[in-house]
From TrEMBL:
Species per Swiss-Prot/TrEMBL record: Desulfobulbus oralis
InterPro entries xrefs: BchE-like (IPR051198), Cobalamin-bd (IPR006158), Elp3/MiaA/NifB-like_rSAM (IPR006638), Methylthiotransferase_CS (IPR020612), Methyltransferase_Class_B (IPR034466), rSAM (IPR007197), rSAM_horseshoe (IPR023404), rSAM_sf (IPR058240)
Pfam families assigned to the protein according to its UniProt record, in alphabetical order: B12-binding, Radical_SAM
Domain B12-binding: 9-146
Cofactor list: [4Fe-4S] cluster
GO terms of molecular function: 4 iron, 4 sulfur cluster binding; catalytic activity; cobalamin binding; metal ion binding
Record's protein name: B12-binding domain-containing radical SAM protein
UniProt-listed SUPFAM superfamilies: Radical SAM enzymes (SSF102114)
Domain Radical SAM core: 189-418
UniProt keyword annotations, A-Z: 4Fe-4S, Iron, Iron-sulfur, Metal-binding, Methyltransferase, S-adenosyl-L-methionine, Transferase
Length: 496
């Protein structure tokens, strides 16, 4: 059986320009690697084909002739996913389409009851490695779709939903596919090759704006370190890649395991390896010895969920008072040469323009290196969404295409959604100004940061200041907003 797995092309520039970071979708690559060997499987990340989607998919379907097509989609990518599924069905109606990922897991009932259901034959909810393989067996007559946990399937055109699957035994999951069956290449972090590595799944923290628990439940599971190292060997030696993003939801929940993983990496003596990962402030603040070991192993950037400088807003987010922990965590990272990417959230119910500015200033105060700024988003099935709905503060309850952290889908008690959108942009422009790469980043990427600082930045800044005098902040905001609106608009999918 020919199996094609696709990830969506939608991207968002919450850290840096949307073309600066393109990384592979690890989920579909891992599913591909765990299918029975008799299947011919291909994987394509459409983020690498954004400018020629219809042409690329038409050629791919003609040449490969898939029997089954899997599509992985986040909630904010689902509108594009539906268009692509429509295109695929028009090009190859005999192929079975399977929807998976976060949106299918959270919103399977709503999808099944909507007109969009006609473009999908199956949905896989939760982890897909076993369910997808069993589905292929069922299509070959070797299994029964009604007996596959986590699968939704159709009878007489209507979806039936099997019970949720138990979390998988990660020791039984093979590493992701990274060979020639991955059809798209050119993955990068700024100017360097980039790959994604997974060492664990899940998080036990109680952040109520996060939908993670709907994928795995509130738990933490780890892959065997031997499996992780085998995959890292492939990335380093076969793929010749030095920048690796660890996609773990919160790797530091098991401190002892992090130490063991770091020891295994150090023992490999990888030269020039640079790792980035996300972690919580509390653990990083209270385990300096772990941070030191991570630095020795090659960790260069840690994403910390700082979120907000307001204790009231942190309490609403289910984070608790982590302000002191955030400051200590950043000190620990800097002490050992690790840059901090600080996640910041704006637009809590009591925020006004001054509160937005204060949160940007808080980022500067704590000395983090790179901001990851998002507007509070009422993601489906989260506790935060319910709170905001009850308070009448959700301005865009169903336009999920804008649920990517960049758009204001909520209002506050002091600002409309449009005012929040403007202040989120304006205060960042005025407080942060033109980005100056931190010293640690200039050291790691001296060539491209020097080009930015001494060539691109002066040219762009001069043009920007001239335009500011002509059209003002409001005019610049309109231009920025128009760019955001066009970013994930794919003209060749307009008819679908």
């Amino acid at each position: 059986m020919h199996v094609l797995l696709l990830s969506m092309p939608d991207i968002t520039p919450v850290i840096i320009h949307e073309e600066a970071v393109h990384l592979p979708n690890l989920g579909i690559a891992t599913i591909a690697a765990n299918l029975d060997p008799e299947h011919e499987v291909r994987v394509a990340d459409l983020v690498r084909k954004r400018r020629c989607l219809k042409k690329y998919l038409s050629r791919l379907l003609r040449d490969f002739q898939p029997d089954v097509i899997g599509l992985s989609s986040m909630t904010w990518q689902f509108e594009t996913c539906v268009r692509i599924a429509h295109l695929l069905k028009s090009l190859r109606p005999q192929a079975k389409t399977v929807l998976g990922g976060y949106h299918a897991t959270l919103m399977f009932a709503e999808i099944a009851a909507s007109p969009d259901a006609r473009w999908f034959d199956f949905m896989v909810r939760g982890e897909g490695e076993i369910a997808m393989n069993r589905l292929l067996r069922a299509l070959d007559g070797q299994d029964d779709v009604a007996r596959i946990p986590g699968l939704s399937y159709k009878i007489a055109g209507l979806f039936r939903h099997n019970p949720r699957a138990e979390n998988l035994d990660l020791a039984a999951i093979r590493p992701p596919l990274r060979d020639q069956r991955r059809l798209t290449w050119g993955y990068h972090i700024i100017a360097q090759r980039g790959e994604v590595l997974e060492t664990s799944r899940g998080c036990t923290r109680g952040c109520n704006f996060c939908c993670m628990r709907h994928m795995y439940g509130r738990c933490f599971r780890a892959f065997p370190i031997e499996r992780v190292m085998a995959d890292l060997d492939v990335i380093y030696h076969e793929r010749k890649t030095r920048w690796v993003f660890l996609s773990d939801d919160n790797i530091v929940l098991n401190v002892q395991r992090v130490m063991q993983l770091c020891e295994a990496i150090i023992a490999r003596r990888y030269k020039g390896l640079m790792l980035s990962v996300q972690a919580d402030c509390l653990t990083i603040a209270s385990h300096e010895e772990m941070v030191a070991k991570m630095a020795e192993a090659g960790f260069r950037i840690i994403f910390l969920g700082v979120e907000n400088g307001s204790k009231r807003n942190l309490a609403q987010a289910g984070k608790g008072d982590i302000v002191a922990a955030a400051k200590q965590a950043i000190r620990n990272c800097h002490k050992y040469g690790i840059m901090v990417l600080a996640g910041m959230i704006f637009g809590f119910p009591d925020d006004d323009a001054a509160a937005i500015r204060e949160n940007y200033e808080f980022f500067l105060e704590i000395g983090a290196d790179i901001p990851y700024c998002q507007i509070l988003t009422p993601y489906p099935k989260t506790g935060m969404r319910q709170q905001l709905m009850d308070a009448g503060l959700v301005a865009n309850p169903e336009g999920y295409k804008r649920y990517n952290g960049l758009w204001a889908n909520v209002r506050t008690r002091h600002m409309s959604a449009d005012e929040l959108q403007f202040q989120f942009w304006l205060q960042r422009e005025q407080v942060f100004g033109w980005w100056n790469p931190p010293a640690l980043l200039r050291k790691e990427g001296w060539l491209w940061t020097s080009f930015w600082r001494f060539v691109m930045k002066p040219l762009l800044k001069r043009s920007y200041e001239k335009k500011l005098k002509t059209i003002g902040w409001e005019g610049l905001f309109r231009e920025a907003r128009a760019h955001w609106q066009s970013m994930n608009h794919f003209s060749d999918l307009e008819d679908y």
